[in-house]
Design a protein that fits this description.
CATH architecture: Up-down Bundle
Number of strands: 5
Largest sheet: 3 strands, antiparallel
Strand order of the largest sheet: 2-4-5
Number of helices: 10
Strand content: 5-15%
Helix content: 55-70%
Distance between the termini: 34 Å
Shape: globular
Order of helices and strands: EEHHHHHHHEHEEHH
CATH superfamily: Rhomboid-like
CATH topology: Rhomboid-like fold
Radius of gyration: 19 Å
Amino acid sequence: MASLLRLSRTIRAMRAPQSPNRVSTHFFTPARLPQHLGPTRSRFYSGYSPNGPSQASANTTVLYGLIGANLAVFGYGQYAHSQAKEGYIAPWSKFLRNMTLNSTDFRNGYWWTVVTANFTHIGVGHLLGNMITAYFIGGFLAAAPQITPNRFLIITMGSALTGAAGYLFQRLQISGQNPGKTDYKRGLGFSGALMGINTVAACLAPNLKVQLYGIIPVPLWALVTGYAVYDGYYLDNGNTGVAHAGHLGGLAFGLAYYFFRLRFVRY
């Protein structure tokens, strides 16, 4: 939900949505990842679980499936958008209504968008930033012995749904102040799910060093905390183009899942 997209008030006037050229603020990679993760995986599995490597492989399959779903939706969205620019608006309009989260559409029965919006990206930078984060931090989480494929999927989709719920709740509150007025803002993106993944990873390995924008090394706990503070500070600011409530919803699920389901898991 890291980006918001305003629909044109008329389909006839619909043009290409504006999206930032910069990479998402979630663009970071673990510092010296190959050296760090190699020993980590060995330490995780040696002497603890005879099925450890196969479990990590299954987790990675789930992760790649989620990344693939994001890429597939992006590909179709680009096709539908190109059709719209040629004058065939219907596929693009249908795509936006079914694959992005909007409070007015939700009230009108598009309830499935609380799921589908999490896999939708319009801008290449938004997609790239989220998928790189999913690959590296999601890959680290997939190697953790506490994480089974079911748990990995629960963390991801639970965070995605609570992120969508957080965004939707805020938009419904705002639109409730203007009854009968159509909400033209739309939420989309995998960031709510990633906030949950990042939060669980930070709880399991708080001192894991990551490189913000590939340059600045910071511990994972500090990065996640920084995002929480940033999102909390700008929560009620509607001009940032970021669904802060969605991020916080995903973070809340990640914290809750760690403390209630993973904290005392033995392996």
